[in-house]
Amino acid sequence: SDGSVLPESGLAASGGLIRDHLGRCLSAFTLNLGACTITQAELRGVVEGLRVAWDKGYRRVRVQLDSQCAVQLIRHANTGNHHCVAILDRFRELLSRHWDVIIEHVYREGNRCADFLASRGHVVPFGFHEVASADPMLLYWIMYDCQGISEPRLVLNEG
């Protein structure tokens, strides 16, 4: 899953997809959220992805997102006064069900499909939208991911 906020307007969107162990797309979604923070958008993407996975009967799920902040919030036990507490409560309710869920951080370059779906959320009406797994642009990004194309990444070494 991924989240996106347009800096000019503050309008947010999320998106994500569910793939099998071979990388094939089983389900994809985009979500126009209106105005919210990037952290809220990232977390809403996770919650919607988990909801879709549960509704479709998947009980062994690996969630990958490129927001280290969202991963830390999800893993942190005490978030009672955080501005994302309602979303985190919904996440914890989903997590308490009888299934195996692993949450992990991935770099943005490894999250291209979800990034594409989050960006698409800015151009659809408000709310949740399922995306056809045969969408040509989604298939392009899935193929790109499956080829394992690497990109250089600049890492600054402080010290």
TrEMBL record:
InterPro entries hit by this protein: RNase_H-like, RNase_H-like_dom_plant, RNaseH-like_sf, RNaseH_domain, RNaseH_sf
TM spans (from-to): none
CDD domains registered for this protein in UniProt: RNase_H_like (cd06222)
GO molecular function, one term: nucleic acid binding
Domain of life of the source: Eukaryota
Domain RNase H type-1: 1-123
PANTHER family: OS05G0353850 PROTEIN, PUTATIVE-RELATED
Protein name from the UniProt record: RNase H type-1 domain-containing protein
